[in-house]
Amino acid sequence: MSQTVTASRAPAPPEAGQVVQVRGAIWAVTEVEAQGLPRSSADDGRPLLEHVVTLQSLDEDRMGEELRVVWELEVGNSVVPDRGLPETISADDFDDPDTLGAFVDAVRWGAVTSADPKAFQSPFRSGATLEPYQLEPLRRALAAPRTNLLLADDVGLGKTIEAGLVIEELLLRHRARSVIVVCPPSLALKWRDEMREKFGLDFVIVDSARMAADRRTYGLAANPLRLHPRIIVSMAWLPGVRAQRLLREVLAETDRSASARRYAFDVLVVDEAHHVAPAAPSAAGGGRGYAVDSQRTRALRRLADKCEHRLFLSATPHNGYTESFSALLEMIDPRRFARGASIDSTALEEVTVRRLKSQITDKDFRRRRVEVLPYEPSSDEERAYAELDSLLRSSGRAQGRRNLDIAALLLKKRFLSSPWAFAQTLEGYLAPALLAGDPDWFGGDVNDAYDDYYTEVMGSGQSDEEEGLIAQPELDALLATRGSDPLSAATREQLEDLAQWARGYQSRPDSRLEALVSMLDAVCRPDGRTWTNERVVVFTEYADTLDWIVSVLRQQGYGERLAVIRGSTSADEREDIRARFNADPTEEDVRVLVATDAAGEGIDLQTYCHRLVNFDVPFNPSRLEQRVGRIDRYGQRETPTIFYLAPVASGEGLYAGHQDFLGRLAEKIATETRDLGTVNPLIDEQITKRFLGRSLRKAPARGRDEQAIDSALAGSGRLNQQLTALAHGYEQTKAAMHLTPQAGRRVVDEALTMTHQPPLEEVGSELTDASVFAVPDLARSWQDAVAGLDTRLQPGRLRPVTFDEEAGRVPGIVHVHLGHPLMRKSTRILRANLFSPHSEVSRVTAVVLPGLEHSCAASMSRLVLVGRGGLRLHEQVFVTGVRLRGHRIAEETLHEVLDRSLDPGSYRLAGTEVRRHLAALWNDGGHLRTRLVEETARRAQSLQAGVHQSLEERCQADLDRVRGIFAAFRANLTDSLTHLRVQEREQQAMLDLWSGEQRQQRARDIRAMEDRLEDLAGEETREEAAVRSRYEDVRPYVSSVALVLAVTEEDAETWGRQS
Description:
By secondary structure, this protein is α/β, with parallel strands linked by helices.
């Protein structure tokens, strides 16, 4: 008996095209497939086939998700009845217009089109203050079948916001579902918080703690790279053994022939991308060598190969060496660039987005000012520096060298930073355990050790991970050079004397630090007692120098007013310091931030600070520019002022002369308008000539590739007319979307009421006339929606919210935009309920509209077009209507009728007799309903035909673009290989001077180009097939959203009298 009951209750399988409810969500059925074998009769009493049903999500927030289920094994699944216009209407079933309006807005805001590349969606779902220039990356991303961009905007122009817009748009258009962000460790929290606050996107930081948590929750085999759709990983963690093991599992899935996954991640974002490019090549026989891939470069390339869309962000992407830059470009777009090949200038212009602050003329970016902090070097400092120089030179001559070497440069560099940094270096050098030296420290050729070390000393590798740590790589490198002792001619007594002199400055300022303290006093407490509201950032290259500055400032009474960031500062502590430094000075005491270059990236400090001091000067221009970018960025209201220390008069002293040279270097870099990649090698050559008497590495010749790079990175302030029009039409677009503060509040309150939560409480604010609300205590199911309303400085205390965009810019008030988690959850709740078989609304309302010419029935419907593989190509909400007596109505009139009918204050509620009359009219033979259904079908077919035409045109444009890209790449590879073979014949003597690793890298690059050229035809065919499949098998789904019966005042009066 029980078996018979079970069989009778098995739900009948759906048909393709039907809408079903499975696992609490609404899906479209795209395919139904009967299982090959019948189920066992022992299961059901009689054999039955099972059906594998392929589903495509119709929920906006599921981002085009697909699901395959065995229909008979699911619990609670059902076919959703056709939710078209109601067959009959009861006079008691009319919804309140205000309530139905909230549901209609939730559907309207969720409709996203992928058919029109010019119809941007993400700007209206962002909480960021957008500028027209920030839309250019979005325009380029949507114009291409695949997004591959280098966002190289000037420091502080908002590259993170630009990337967020592209990510959000790709997700909204269902061109992407999974995202991986690779960034320096110090920026992971910033990315997570900004994506949530500005775009409502939740990202998970994958690190050791997350791995442990996932294993506790999901089992020991859990892989966080597969568990979470949007993740952030550190570029320092990525090359590690543990990360590579997890990544191999994910990448392996894309290699299986039976797998539907072509990509491990749909979107790859690499922030501060210059860190993953190969370092500048080490010297080769006085010339230049060939850049070799680092472990980090190789790890990132393996990942990039399995990601469809790629966004690389860096204000300083070019280190001045072509093969290093081409390696970065190959990771961005391997269909246009190859490591070691010539750079196609047209392709480079197409993938690069570069604007300088000086080119954004309408935003009035303040031109930075560079000022000198003068000081007078003491005779002691001059004597000690001259003594060091003499010892280095005599040691070099004793070893048969006419010039100083790289280790000598390090010792001078530390001395010029601070006497305390020099003392710490010298003490490490004199440590008894290291007296013998170890020429095999690097396990290889000492010359190779010098080459590797040179990259670090000059900063050309641009590694910021080690900056500010106690044990810096420079110290290791110095100790490693003991095989060719830079101080071999010095007696231990002489070195001890120098060390004792330097140690004498412990907690005591030298002439430079005295100048800094005077400047800080003048700015922060001019009368010596009362603290102003001014703030200053001080940068130094070394942790030892930082410790020394901090100890002196604390003695001077800066203890409570001081904050410190170094390489060892944890991510959470960095964020706390950033929050304190950016808080109102009347509420937070901190006035001075002292930091190493560990704070040179990703920390925005412009809110209440416009002064920055470079206490010492890094030899890498890019690193110096990153420092300045902490205050010279979007949102800075004052003139950014950059200070550097310089002797009053350089005179004859060597110490003063070298400090003066570094000061002028800092000024030149701070005012440089060209791409710093052009400047880097020149600065490199000037520094080594000045300090060592010779150039260790020649700047590369300026050939065709360099000219192409210069042109692309020179920037352009030209704005596409489309972007300007979009920015100017922003308010009109919002009006068309019915995106008003009142509508936003109504949606959230309706969702809260539906889930039995208290409504928002209007509290107001003295800082704005707009409505401001307090968020009440909500149930656990709402906690994700309010996460982030508190702050680091006041955890657990929710900030008030507003739905007004202007009020949302007021400090301390949060704008609930379309992408905000609170709004996302609210719209999701309303949409799910509206299309549910158990909806709480009838989806019908009736109103009396003053001034309406003819009584009418208006229907809002949703059209969804789904392509192959469940890819949602288009979604649109449209309105149709007919007069109650007469013909169809113009679309413009219908939109006005719909908005007025659902906006409080624009209508009167229809009385009981009017509702009865309307119900009777609707139920009378179904004539009115039939007319409206026919009008809706006609309109849907018309819209569908137009979209099909757009999709066909887009498909052809994508195919033409693909063919053009491959043709250009084929020609470039052929020319590059010819050039490299000629170079090999003509410059063999130079190539022989390269290290073995450099020659192997060049051979690998050439071999890879040859392989690519051979496979290019097949690759092009596969790419064209992928483009075509995106636009095939398009299926429409039309569903009714709401029915509005709008009545003229005359008809309402007449029908009311008929009672």
